[in-house]
Amino acid sequence: MLAHDAGTGVFDTGIDPGFLEVLEKHPENADRVRNMVSILRKGPISPFVSWHSGRPAHVSELLSFHSAEYIEELVQANGAGSKELCSGTFLNPGSWGAALLAAGTTLSAIKYILDGHGKLAYALVRPPGHHAQPCQADGYCFLNNAGLAVQLALDSGFRKVAIIDIDVHYGNGTAEQFYRSDNVLTVSLHMNHGSWGPSHPQSGSIDEIGEGNGFGYNLNIPLPNGTGDEGYSYAMKELVVPAVQVFEPMLIVLVVGQDSSAFDPNGRQCLTMEGYRKIGQTVRRLADTYTNGRILIVQEGGYHVTYSAYCLHATLEGVLKLPAPLLSDPIAYYPEDKAYTFKVVDAIKKHWKESIPFLKEL
Fold first, then answer.
1. H-run or E-run covering 131
2. Is this structure's pTM higher than 0.90?
């Protein structure tokens, strides 16, 4: 998966303006994942982690989520050598193989749970996937890794799956696939960024709540910039936990992106390690109550090469219910103003109670 190279340029554009001495790597680069692997192998959490090799997905497996026409588009782009599929999303030599490995490894992780080998699995994969829609690449994503895993769980007899997506951006691709299903509760906490063009028409607003049988089962929590640890904790307590409690899932899929951190170049949400740790603890409590402890964690964004690894470590500490932090925060404090976020969360809760039938007693 490290072979995927999105190039260099001005941030994620691939553009060389001709007057910069140093062009930065695309934010979705291999170094971020190298550090995630390294911190889990060498950091204090290492005794609690066992490792399993991934595999490439078969093209036939991808059709449970993606259209045949879209897969053929990717295959042809790979054959052509290089192509910018949409803004900032570059398929270069090595990218298609990496995408197949990311999808197959995530499927292997959910299969590990479905086959009863364990209750917790983390798919440490790249390129990310939650923006990839059934027929469209988007936001550095080619194949929807988490969505493929959810579909496999449904096909394997899990009638109700809850997705909790804490990446800083709306998980629009996953939402699009399950937008008309009441078998999947999709909850996305993200910064209030709106649509960003033809590849990402969804806004992630509170009004995008599903259609048909899925009406009310797509829950968006667009949070103000700078929400911080206390704001996320309040959103989890007041919105995410009650919704999952009413839904009563058989499996939780935690879609993690460390781009919600205080120092990420691609987000402004100001979470620290402690905020991620608390989210992990909350999700674990929900799983212990409703899913017999079953949690699949799928890696998405997170572009600060160092701090993303630290925040991943903290998230897994929380999921593992470790009694005390194993790793101190190298940056630690970041000022936050929780008052405005609390008002936003309260307003979202009021909207849900008024608009969504199964949450009217929230």
1. none
2. yes
